[in-house]
Design goal:
Layout lengths: L12 H9 L3 E5 L4 E4 L12 E6 L4 E13 L5 E14 L2 H20 L21 H20 L2 E7 L5 H6 L18 H8 L14 E5 L14 E5 H7 L4 H4 L4 H8 L7 H17 L6 E4 L1 H11 L5 H7 L10 E4 L3 E7 L8 E3 L5 E4 L5 E2 L2 E2 L3 E6 L6 E8 L5 E6 L2 E6 L3 E5 L4 E7 L13
Parallel strand pairs: 3-6, 5-10, 5-11, 6-9
Antiparallel strand pairs: 1-2, 3-4, 4-5, 7-8, 11-21, 12-13, 14-15, 16-17, 16-20, 17-18, 18-19
Helix pairs in contact: 2-3, 3-9, 10-11
């Protein structure tokens, strides 16, 4: 960043170390690592601008900062070379939010029904505004926007390219392309679910082949483990098998009977949760990213796939983000550089807002502390500890877990140590994310050489 706080072009880590060593720059942020120059303003700098490319996903999202320059090939021709400068892999926690919401609903349902008179459920007694999304889906949009906003704050982003993909869940559920009237006729067209299952399993238990006994409709993947009510997730089971399986997944229940497990799994199709989540959030994400004030260009998933195959690259979220956007392959446009390391940003949340710790029935058991900050530190802060004496003497850097006594717990790469708050120095406040690095795994290339 410039002296007046405006973003400049990224530099090589060696150049950043040189500037910091000579005292010509200071650290503005630890993760992502940002330095601020002391001697140069934006007016005195040459800034070409970057592109932010986003590949949204259900469980993870890839973001990449790229620039494009005109280069000359061996025959003297001109082509556009796209260079990846920074790659970020954002890992969502939508599934965790979904499970917590379901647990909270179970607590509430039990408190209202146990040892009390019957009260009819009222699921539709609250209005929802236009554009409402469940919390687990809203989280995906909010966290993607938050990371994109942070990259736009620290890098000179001129335009944003977002992959916008629509999944045909009906065709995916059937397993083949559909046309015309086939979209109006699903698996249960003209038949009820119980009749279909009786015909499919020949009026016998799917687990033990018992006949002439009462049969229950059973979920292969239980609802408590994220299973759906799709007909491919349902089977018929006798009462003893239904009780024995309980909330176990079918893989665990039939672990000692692989032949029967394979027979049952042949009818179970791929879950559509991820596809439904992407369909529900793709327009919301585009509208949210436009708030950043940069031109937003939606791109198709087929174009990303074409660019990746033409470059001979493997599939990861960060590589897909690098391939988002138009490329003229006939003219020779190519991706000439991949970032060597990927910054992995994991959404961890900012702590629980619950005021009490519930028991297994959902009733308050312990009262939680109202204070989250002790001696100037909060759980999740990035700190540096200088321990003068003892077994753990030395300098340690990591995340801190605070205690009211002031004897905080520090998690470093070597393990967890206890250290006094007097020996800690704050490097970066907790922002609801955990950070790590990994090497870029999709480095194979079939065409023009890709530089690390």
């Amino acid at each position: 960043m410039s002296r007046d706080g405006h973003p400049l072009m990224p530099c090589h880590p060696a150049r950043a170390r040189e500037l910091l060593g000579k005292g010509r720059a200071v650290v503005a942020r630890q993760v992502p690592f940002v330095i601020r120059l002391k001697y140069r303003t934006l007016a005195e700098s040459e800034v070409d601008g970057l592109c932010l490319r986003i590949d949204p996903g259900s469980k993870g999202t890839g973001l990449a900062l790229t620039d494009e320059k005109q280069e000359t090939d061996a025959q003297g021709g001109s082509f556009t070379g796209r260079r990846g400068l920074v790659s970020v892999e954002l890992r969502h926690r939508g599934e965790q939010i979904r499970l917590c919401m379901r647990q909270r609903a179970g607590y509430r349902r039990r408190r209202r029904s146990a040892n009390r008179r019957y009260r009819a459920p009222r699921p539709d007694n609250r209005s929802r505004p236009a554009g409402w999304l469940p919390p687990s889906l809203r989280h995906r949009v909010d966290t993607t926007y938050a990371v994109a906003s942070r990259l736009c704050r620290y890098a000179p982003v001129n335009e944003i390219h977002v992959e916008s993909v629509a999944f045909d869940v009906h065709a995916m559920s059937v397993g083949r392309p559909l046309a015309d009237v086939e979209y109006q006729r699903g698996t249960l067209a003209g038949i009820e679910a119980r009749s279909y299952l009786r015909s499919r399993w020949e009026n016998a238990c799917a687990y033990c082949d018992a006949t002439d006994v009462p049969l229950n409709i059973e979920h292969l993947t239980p609802r408590s483990r994220g299973g759906s009510d799709r007909i491919s997730n349902l089977v018929l089971a006798c009462v003893p098998c239904n009780r024995a399986k309980g909330s176990m997944p079918v893989e665990g229940f039939l672990a000692d009977r692989p032949d029967r497990l394979a027979k049952i799994l042949r009818q179970a199709r791929t879950p559509l949760d991820d596809a439904a989540a992407m369909n529900a959030t793709r327009w919301q994400l585009l509208e949210r990213v436009r708030v950043l004030g940069r031109p937003v260009n939606p791109c198709s998933g087929a174009q990303t796939h074409w660019n990746r195959d033409a470059m001979g690259l493997g599939k990861t979220h960060t590589v897909d983000a690098l391939c988002v956007g138009a490329m003229d392959h006939e003219r020779g446009d190519a991706i000439v550089r991949l970032p060597d390391r990927v910054l992995v940003v994991r959404a961890t949340g900012r702590g629980s807002y619950a005021r009490t710790t519930p028991d297994r029935f959902g009733f308050p058991r312990l009262r939680r502390s109202r204070v989250k900050r002790h001696f100037g530190f909060a759980t999740g802060d990035l700190v540096r500890a200088v321990v003068p004496l003892g077994k753990w003497a030395g300098v340690w850097t990591g995340r801190v877990s605070v205690r009211a006594t002031g004897r905080h717990s520090l998690t470093a790469t070597e393990g967890r140590i206890d250290v006094s708050h007097r020996n800690l120095r704050l490097l970066q406040r907790a922002d609801g994310y955990g950070y790590a690095f990994r090497p870029e795994g999709a480095r194979q290339h079939l065409g023009k050489p890709v530089e690390p």
